[in-house]
Amino acid sequence: MLDQLRISASPGAIEQDALPQILVVEDNETLLAFLANRLGTHYRLLLASNGARAWELAQQHLPDLVISDVMMPLMDGFELTQRLKTSSVTDHIAVILLTDKAAPKSRLDGLGHGADDYIAKPFQLDELTLRVSMSRKTLDRKVQSLTQLAPNELIRNYQLLRGAELLGSGQPISQVAYQVGFESPSHFSYAFRELYALTPSEFARRY
């Protein structure tokens, strides 16, 4: 069975934990394996063969995106989407539904349950990949509505918070700068002063 956790990354890419995570839900094992093979070089993947298992994985791992078939055993894609979009824990997760039903009513049903996008089978892999670029915008909007910060600002503030903790433990500024992901100590110092109104040296002297 392909109903399992799978984590992949392209050789030489950024660390796996930094890659976006996608939950792929499909009861056709051949199609599930195909999607896993094609998407697994650029994303961390969670795989499920039915909606019930997908709902468990979504709550546990909070993926960035769910790509789901509609017609599945135990829980179909419509119900899965509705659960994801009506829970405050998972409502930020973007959802793309895949289905053999291309009729306008079926599309409206999917979108009515909260899906962010809808793709009829058979589909071109290039189209699916493009829709996955587009669906991350939903996550960006959710982050900004919750924190009043753009995702890159939120990440930068976390880096600087971690940097402040390391400076407080006595580590040198240059080491801290690279350790929290800045390209240079001068860049780290500039961003640190912007956020805390203190240079890293001034901050460190207070500890």
Describe this structure in words.
This protein has 207 residues and is of the alpha/beta class. The chain folds into 2 domains: 5-147, Response regulator (Rossmann fold, 3-Layer(aba) Sandwich), CATH 3.40.50; 151-205, Arc Repressor Mutant, subunit A (Orthogonal Bundle). It is built from 9 helices and 6 strands, in the order ββαβαβαβαβααααα. Strands 1-3-2-4-5-6 form a 6-stranded mixed sheet, with helices on both faces. Helix 1 (29-39) links the parallel strand 2 and strand 3 (44-48). Helix 2 packs parallel to helix 3 (77-86) and helix 6 (151-168) packs across helix 8 (185-196). It is elongated and about 65 Å long. Residues 1-15 have low confidence and may be disordered.
Poorly predicted parts:
1-15
Q: Please report the number of helical segments.
A: 9
Q: What is the CATH third-level topology name of the largest domain?
A: Rossmann fold
In N-to-C order, the SSE pattern is EEHEHEHEHEHHHHH
Going by CATH, the architecture of the largest domain would be 3-Layer(aba) Sandwich
Strand content: 5-15%
What is the radius of gyration computed over CA atoms, rounded to a whole number of angstroms? Answer: 21 Å
Tell me about the largest β-sheet: 6 strands, mixed
Total domains: 2
Quaternary class: single chain
Shape: elongated
- Secondary-structure-based class equals alpha/beta
Q: Determine the N-to-C terminus distance.
A: 55 Å
How much helix, percentage-wise, in residues? 40-55%
Number of strands: 6
- Biggest sheet, spatial arrangement of strands: 1-3-2-4-5-6
* Top-tier CATH class of the largest domain: Alpha Beta
Keywords: DNA-binding, Phosphoprotein, Transcription, Transcription regulation
Organism: Larkinella insperata
Modified residues (4-aspartylphosphate): 69
Domain Response regulatory: 21-136
